[in-house]
Amino acid sequence: MVFNVIVDTVLQELSDRFSNLQLVSEKFKFITKMEHMTQAELEESVTRYALTTCDVSRDIIQEMYPASRLLKGYKALEKLNFLIQENLDLVFPNLTVALRVFLTMPLTVASAERSFSKLKLIKTYLRSSMSNDRLTQGTTCNNLVVGRGLIYVITLLYIIFCVLLS
Q: What CA–CA distance (Å, rounded) separates 115 from 8?
C-alpha cells in the first residue's frame, strides 16, 4: 500500500515537470522548430510569444522569416552564437533577446533547492558557534558559487567561517 502511494507521488511529480516543459516548448516553438514551420505557422507562433511577454517588441515578427532561413540547421545556442559572432544581433535584436531568454530560463528550481540544502548542512555543522547574522552573510557567498560542487562550497565557507571565528 505504501509503495503505491510513493509511485503515485513520483508519477504525479514527473507529470507536473513534463507538463511545464511542454508549456515552455510550445511557447518557444518558433526557436526550436523554425526550420520546419511555414511562414504562417512561424508568424502565429511568434505573435503568440510577443503578446505574452514584454521582453521583445512586435517587430520580432518581421525578423523571424529571414532569420529562419539564415539560421537553418543550427541549434538554439548555435543560433545565438552565430548572431553575435557575425554582428547580426543588431539586425535581429528581438530574436537575440528571445534566444537569451530561452537559453537562460530555468526549467526547475533545483539551484534554489541546492542552496537551501547547502545552507542546512552548514547551519547544522556550525550552529553552536554562529549567530544568524553571520550565517546570512554566508548564504550570500553560497549563492555566488552554487553549481561548482558541494565540496568546494562547503570547504570555501568553512574556511571563511574559521577565519571569522578566529
A: 28
C-alpha cell at 3: 509503495
Check if the beta carbon of residue 135 is closer than 8 Å to that of residue 122: yes
Q: Full-prediction pTM beyond 0.85?
A: no
Q: How confident is the model at residue 129 (pLDDT cuts 50, 70, 90)?
A: low
Helix (H, G, I), strand (E, B) or coil at 38: coil
Question: Do the beta carbons of residue 72 and residue 35 sit within 8 Å?
Answer: yes
- pLDDT for position 147: 47
Residue-by-residue DSSP string for 67-100: HHHHTTT--HHHHHHHHHHTTTTTTSHHHHHHHH
Highest mean pLDDT among 79-83, 104-108, 131-135: 79-83
Place of cell 552554487: 146
Gap between the Cα atoms of 122 and 164, Å rounded: 15
What is the mean pLDDT of the segment spanning 5-14?
Answer: 78
CA gap 54, 49 in Å, rounded: 9
| Sequence-separated (6 or more) residues with CB below 8 Å from residue 120 | none
